[in-house]
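Changelog-adjacent note: as of this version, every example in the card shows the full chain rather than a window. The one below runs 449 residues end to end.
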Amino acid sequence: MTSSAGSSCTSARRQKQRRSSRRSCRTPGRDPQALSALGDFQTLPLEIFQMVLNYLSVKDISTLSMVSKTISGRLINYISTSSGSRRLLLQDFHHSELPGRREGASILEHYRSLGLLLKRCTLLLPTRDRLKYVHKVLSGVSCFKLNGCASPLHCLGLQCYGVFLQILTAGWDELECHRVFNFLWELGNLARKVQTVVSSKPGSARRLELRIRLYCRGVLLSPGSHRSDSAFWLTRILKPWPMVNQARLLYIIFGPVSSRDGHVVWQKMIEGPTDETSLKGLADAIKLLYGTEAREWTADDVISLVDELSVVPQEWLMENNARLLLLSGNSICFTFLASKAVNGRAVELARLMVFMALVCEKDLYCMDWAVKMMQKVCKVFSTPWERNNFLQCLENTFAHMLMDMLQAVLAGERDEEDSSFLNLFHLVNAQANFHKEILYLAMGSSSST
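Full-length structure tokens:
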């Protein structure tokens, strides 16, 4: 019995020694599970594997990254190499076409695919680590920085960065997106720079205004983003500031700019009537904040912002106020007018209504829209006297404006475009068409009774 027990113990020791010997003979870093995760690539040296990647498109590499965690790790190492960086971090941002690619393929598409690749490669990392890794990869691209490009108006760098981030963060929850915003904001020291432009005299920091505009529009408010995403990023940009600074910042990002040098034109709304093109960006931003996607904004917030905007940098011409409201949509327009009716500002409301009729005439909108809007506003007044007082102010405004314009024409106040006579012509037609629509409504309702 003793001999048998000793023999079994000796056999067990020998088996243990053989297993230990097999473990000690393994090549360092050649874990069988990791090798099996590489599939057929396990037979290739790392250098050959990376050479194969050079023949794959970025989309194909992105798909490959989903095969296993081991391959994903190898791809992360490849991206960090000098050859991987040269291959993936294209920096020809001042030309729309990529060398060696089929005609029509843009550098924006390349960075969209790169965003998906890094999204998949960093899938298992915490948000903070993902952002640090992405920043490490992209830190060498100067055109991705606020002041990184010497010719920002002719550069696609910030737009490429924007579509990259758009794909990278797609599907992330709100808390993660907050971290992304804070990371970018701190990285570029944007809080201090925005503070400079919203507290300085308008136009005194023109280059910084332009840089902030291009960065916000290209990176955070990337064209093609979902409305909910755009509302989130715009809210993050505006909400930390007081209302007066919000209005200034909104004008910097979406207001009219010079076609010559791209700088913000601060006097555009003050010097004379402007066109729809100059106001469309502001109107779209207001509609975005007023929509259901922007949960942190109430109707009162948006109305206050529009009110504050109309005095940036000084009080706008009333015609430009009216045009902005028309472009912002029915809901915002009515809410803005109704707030003036509720607050007893009948004279101001009447002037705004007259200018809306004038804009409808000039911009070829249907005049019955203005009349129906007036009808809705009249229902807001709590007493017949208030409503009648508003209608009286409306007619008085038409009369006073006609007399003022007629005096300007008779005084010979003319410029190259003869704008005084043209304004009088438009206002006379606006009044006639406005009252024509009222007569149609009155006669239609009387005949139906």
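Structural remarks: The mean pLDDT is 88.
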